[in-house]
């Protein structure tokens, strides 16, 4: 009787999962995107490249050719590295190069490979209450925002974006706090939309801005071009044999870095937005 009850329970759970369309990842949690349907499965963790569709564009080609399935998990760079360390992700696409190099040095990550870049824009309301449009650096802009206590939105999630933001605050000699400093604990698109709704400042990546600007009513780009705002992406995966998907993770990074993969990155977004959302590795190399 107990065995029959257990089998019935398992069957009910499987039906529930099938009914929702959710597909468990290697870590047991549902995937935020599943591409391909092959028996060889691996998990990729990243944030904006998945939200904006770059992961899908790359995965559709790779999985069809290799008879694999890619499970995308939405996570910022900090959380992606944590998942890699805990072996709940096979590969990540991140933009926290110092933390990534440390992971390789400690032996729990491999194949640190340059794959492309974008940059950060500091956006804010057209009225620009802090007057940052007249500044020449991100550090000066942040200092003015703090001095005027103009509303600023922070992801506050240990992502690569959040780490970059904290780096700039530190260089400005500011520890942000108070009602003007709003921590969202949300991803890029959600935080950008909150900043637009409440007419606040935010540091968004250029790719998300190009894809989302048509939906934003109150924000404009007020500062860009500072070298500190360059955002370099790398691929990073499990060492060989560490997880069942490690082999395919390494092959996926090699594909993304190949001429074919780089062509996808260079052209991604041009059809929908009139301009590419990412620069390729050849361009990004100057900022390494």
Account of the 3D structure:
With 288 residues, this protein is an alpha/beta fold. The chain folds into 2 domains: 8-117 and 232-287, Periplasmic binding protein-like II (D-Maltodextrin-Binding Protein, domain 2, 3-Layer(aba) Sandwich); 118-229, D-Maltodextrin-Binding Protein, domain 2 (3-Layer(aba) Sandwich). Helix content is 44%, strand content 22%. It contains 13 helices and 11 strands. It has helices at residues 2-20, 48-51, 54-66, 77-85, 97-106, 138-148, 160-172, 188-198, 206-212, 246-257, 259-267, 270-273, 281-284; strands spanning 33-35, 40-46, 68-74, 91-94, 110-125, 152-154, 181-183, 202-205, 219-223, 230-237, 279-280. Strands 1, 2, 3, 4, 5, 8, 9, 10 and 11 form a 9-stranded mixed β-sheet that branches. Helix 6 crosses helix 7. The longest helix is centred in the first third of the chain and has 19 residues, at 2-20. The protein starts with a helix and ends with a helix. 45% of the residues are buried.
